[in-house]
Structure formats: C-alpha cells, structure tokens
Design brief:
Number of helices: 4
Oligomer: single chain
Pfam families: HTH_17
Protein name: Helix-turn-helix domain-containing protein
Radius of gyration: 23 Å
Mean pLDDT: 85
Domain Helix-turn-helix: 41-89
Number of domains: 2
Shape: elongated
CATH class of the largest domain: Mainly Alpha
InterPro entries: DNA-bd_dom_put_sf (IPR009061), HTH_17 (IPR041657)
CATH architecture of the largest domain: Orthogonal Bundle
Organism: Dyadobacter helix
C-alpha cells in the first residue's frame, strides 16, 4: 500500500475546486431539467421498439419530417407525445418481415 502525504492547504484547494466544478455542472444541467420534466423523451431504440420499426424506417421518418426530434450530445431524442401522435395517425410506411420498407 502506498501512502501519499500532501499539505492540508493543497487538499483544501483541491476540495474547493471540486466543489466549484460540481456547482458549475449543476448549474449547466438545471436549464435542461424543466425540458425533461415536462415531457418524456425517448431515444432511437425506444422509439423503434415502441413503433415496431427498424432504425432505417426511423431515419426515413426523420428525413421526411414525419417525426420531430432533438439532438443532445450527438444523440437523437423524440417526444413521447410525437411518437404517439404518429402511431395514432397510422405509420406512413410499414416494414416487411425482412426489414425493408414499403413506400
């Protein structure tokens, strides 16, 4: 076991810096909390499972503007209400058993 000794002032400085970083992180995420509390958001996999479609079909929905989405950290998210609305309206494209899309 290795023991490393540092001065108390250095430890206090590191502790203060970590607290400041934690506060910055909390402040940065606070602006997104209200967005996620208002509505449930789904990722690609959850949407595909819910709609029983392939990832390619989901991409087609996005490309044609049929399913709005938001991008956060290079990941797409979809509002549950938008997915439900598309399901209720009837999926514009259906996939075959082999995964290809009928257009």
């Amino acid at each position: 076991m290795e023991v490393i000794a540092i001065q108390k002032s250095a430890l206090d400085g590191m502790t203060n810096e970590l607290k400041a970083l934690l506060e910055l992180t909390e402040n940065a995420t606070m602006k997104y909390i209200s967005i996620f509390k208002e509505e449930k958001w789904l990722d690609n996999q959850e949407v595909c499972l819910m709609m029983k479609i392939t990832k390619r079909t989901l991409q087609t929905y996005k490309d044609k503007g049929l399913l709005p989405y938001s991008k956060l950290n290079r990941k797409n998210y979809y509002k549950l209400s938008d997915v439900r609305a598309l399901l209720e309206a009837g999926q514009p494209y259906n996939t075959n058993d082999n995964g290809f899309t009928d257009e």
